């Protein structure tokens, strides 16, 4: 079971796989070092996509922060630069006797790829004579999830995990469960969550995710100026918001204006993400604007919003996101942008359909439609920055999610292509996609548009 709270993680931008994951891995290695005696020096080496696009994604800074003991959910985004700069200057990790000089000890390995995933990291600890004491490999597998080599091998060997009471491994099984139990999809996801934490904690956690998503939108609407990284991309959300507010009371307004509001919310989140702000991984940072934008659209523009509908939205989105992660991937480095923006759109479409009272079959249909129309989308961020095409891509993903929900709600849930079939198609398409289109910045827009 993939918990709602694993898919929706409060963290910082710009990337779940390249920022959040590496910070988590580095922090885990720090715990290892703290538990050992005799460590005098440590080193970190990053491989594959992490090396190729790591500077644009802030992977180096994230590793420094993790080694300092910071976590994505709690670090103040306004302090990341000063904390990492201090470590670069002093080499002081706050662990007596242990040295780390980022210039020497943090290595970008552009040549090699570790065997299990392109987002590999290797941390080593040495004693005062430079003898190796610890050697740990981690993989950042998308969405902020991190596994060691041993954990990855155990997962692929199918090591036993506790079964939730209403386990489902496919869209078909999920629909069968709703027929057998009479429960809705959010009720099934909730029943499984209750094996991990009590009801009050689930509700409080869901409300905290919602609040963090809306706070991110609000901050994105206030901020202005250029995004960091050198591409000279100007923030748009603030100006677009002012323009929409200015025409709110006009007698004649285009019917498609609602699409601008949906786009606005997504732009606000992804501009925050691109500037390293506080975002919710949903299911990744690159695609973090879609679920919040559609959730906010549900609150502000759809009838009968209440906290319960917001929770149903998130639980349903998580049920679909968990299926996609388990059966294919949510990582741009593994399957391209169809796995990030496509997955987020499927999750948001399902969430909106549930919040508007759709049946389980309509929810499955909405998720399928949203994913189907992202198939084949590559990942090619210019300069490795999660800005172009990522920010606008979230606006499109959010609008497509609303279209998908609307189409399914006007039908009866019966449709030709199943969610399982489209997830499998996405997996195969990602597998066949040339490596240069999978978060390497070696193809697509990344090579056809001048970075400066
Ligand atoms: S192109 Fe898509 S998958 Fe790639 S970094 Fe941007 S949002 Fe993520």
TrEMBL record:
Spell out where the chain crosses the membrane: none
Q: Which reaction does it catalyse?
A: L-serine = pyruvate + NH4(+)
Highest taxon of the source?
A: Bacteria
**Enzyme Commission code:** 4.3.1.17
Key words, A-Z: 4Fe-4S, Gluconeogenesis, Iron, Iron-sulfur, Lyase, Metal-binding
What InterPro entries has UniProt attached to this entry?
ASB_dom_sf, Fe-S_L-Ser, Fe-S_L-Ser_mono, Ser_deHydtase-like_asu, Ser_deHydtase_bsu
Q: Which residues form the Serine dehydratase beta chain domain?
A: 3-150
Q: Where is the Serine dehydratase-like alpha subunit domain?
A: 181-446
Q: Which family does it belong to?
A: Belongs to the iron-sulfur dependent L-serine dehydratase family.
Q: What is this protein called?
A: L-serine dehydratase
| Taxonomic placement | Bacteria, Pseudomonadati, Pseudomonadota, Alphaproteobacteria, Hyphomicrobiales
């Amino acid at each position: 079971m993939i918990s709602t709270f694993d898919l929706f993680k409060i963290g910082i931008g710009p990337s779940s796989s390249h920022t959040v994951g590496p910070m988590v891995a580095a922090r885990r290695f720090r715990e290892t070092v703290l538990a050992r005696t005799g460590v005098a020096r440590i080193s970190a080496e990053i491989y594959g996509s992490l090396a190729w696009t790591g500077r644009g994604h802030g992977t180096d800074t994230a590793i420094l922060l993790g080694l300092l003991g910071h976590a994505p959910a709690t670090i103040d985004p306004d302090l990341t630069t000063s904390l990492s700069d201090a470590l670069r200057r002093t080499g002081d990790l706050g662990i007596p006797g242990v040295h780390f000089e980022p210039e020497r000890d943090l290595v970008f390995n552009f040549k090699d790829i570790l065997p299990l995933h392109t987002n590999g990291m290797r941390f080593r600890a040495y004693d005062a004579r430079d003898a190796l004491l610890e050697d740990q490999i981690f993989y950042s597998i998308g969405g902020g999830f991190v596994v060691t080599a041993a954990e990855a091998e155990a997962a692929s060997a199918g090591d036993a995990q506790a079964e939730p009471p209403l386990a489902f491994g496919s869209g078909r099984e999920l629909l069968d469960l709703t027929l057998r139990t009479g429960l809705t999809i959010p009720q099934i996801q909730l029943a499984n969550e209750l094996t991990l934490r009590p009801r009050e904690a689930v509700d409080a956690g869901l409300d905290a995710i919602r609040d963090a998503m809306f706070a991110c939108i609000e901050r994105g609407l206030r901020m202005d100026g250029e995004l960091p990284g050198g591409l000279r991309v100007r923030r748009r959300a603030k100006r677009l918001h002012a323009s929409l507010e200015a025409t709110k009371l006009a007698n004649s307004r285009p019917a498609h204006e609602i699409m601008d509001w949906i786009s606005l919310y997504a732009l606000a989140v992804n501009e925050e993400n691109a500037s390293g702000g506080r975002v919710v991984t949903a299911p990744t940072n690159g695609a973090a604007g879609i679920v919040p934008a559609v959730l906010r659209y549900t609150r502000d523009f759809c009838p009968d919003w209440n906290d319960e509908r917001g929770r149903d939205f998130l639980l349903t989105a998580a049920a679909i996101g968990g299926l996609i992660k388990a059966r294919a991937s949510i990582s741009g480095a593994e399957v391209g942008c169809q796995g990030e923006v496509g997955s987020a759109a499927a999750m948001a479409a399902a969430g909106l359909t549930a919040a508007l009272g759709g049946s389980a079959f309509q929810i499955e249909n909405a998720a399928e439609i949203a994913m189907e129309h992202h198939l084949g989308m590559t990942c090619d961020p210019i300069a490795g920055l999660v800005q172009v095409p990522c920010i606008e891509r979230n606006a499109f993903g959010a609008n497509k999610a609303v279209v998908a929900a609307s189409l399914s709600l006007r039908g009866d849930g019966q449709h030709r292509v199943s969610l399982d079939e489209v997830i499998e198609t996405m997996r195969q398409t990602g597998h066949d996609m040339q490596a240069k289109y999978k978060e390497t910045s070696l193809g697509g827009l990344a090579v056809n548009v001048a970075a400066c």
